[in-house]
Amino acid sequence: MRNFITANEYFLSVFGQKVYKIALDGGMSCPNRSLDKKGGCIFCSSGGSGEFAQQQCDSVPEQISGAIKLVESKKPRKFIAYFQSYTNTYAPLEYLKSIFVPAISDERICALSIATRPDCLEQSVVDFLGGLNEVKPVFVELGLQTASDATAKIINRGYETAVYLDAVKRLKEAGINVITHVIIGLPGEGKSELMDTIKTFNDSGSDGIKLQLLHVLKDTQLNKMYEKGEYVPLEKRQYIDLLMLALRSLRPGTVVHRMTGDPPKRLLVAPLWPADKKRVLNDITSALKEQFGE
Ligand code: SF4
Questions:
Q1: What is the pTM assigned to this prediction?
Q2: What is the set of domains in the chain, with CATH numbers?
Q3: pLDDT confidence tier of residue 71, bands split at 50, 70 and 90
Q4: Which residues line ligand 1 (CB under 6 A)?
């Protein structure tokens, strides 16, 4: 028996029906990509890990309408406004209000999901998001990737793990649902580093987790390491074994929002097996059956 909950099960219990995430662009950049920070995380593409967001030139309501149109055929009724690209709290509070208030006020939107960095969450922003959370649920997604400060230096994450723990604590105090991003297959990491990361996640109080493989994308620092033979990507079997290990080790009741990534095919350099998403999902489903008997 598994002791985690899938995102679909969780959203069904909260909203009473299937919900769709629509990716929006808040028009913000990322403090870790500025030149003095050496250009960002080594795996980050120019799209700031949000290749599927609606391009920002439209207002938030216009972006919502455009994104809903794209999934119209599925006849969805409830949507989560997902601010995915870059760091979506990297702006003055007044600007954040001008983006998030229209989104949460839109009657088609049932919740907000905001991806950001733990070192970009001033208390005034946390308080503001806590206020929005009283209107509709707010999820804040934090890119931890690893609990190892040594690996964090290699990937140029730009903050220490203690900063993540403090951010989760303050978000939880504000009543906000926290989702943590963890990457499997980071340079130099194996089972023991992944277990340390899952333990840190379990102890942090974060509600949910997104697990994904490290992809080598074009025009990234990681691609240069890969070309020089300094980074070897995981095989599919290795990834699925590590994924099952992580899932088995989660705190009971954790919501698992993602078990695999969805790399943009036009940018993917290695490994190439994630491009066949259907087969990857089938293989993960088989492994889940083997592990958890369902
Ligand atoms: S924090 Fe996100 S957007 Fe910023 S450099 Fe890292 S992956 Fe890219």
A1: 0.95
A2: 5-292 (3.20.20.70)
A3: confident
A4: 30, 32-33, 40-41, 44, 48-49, 86-87, 117, 143
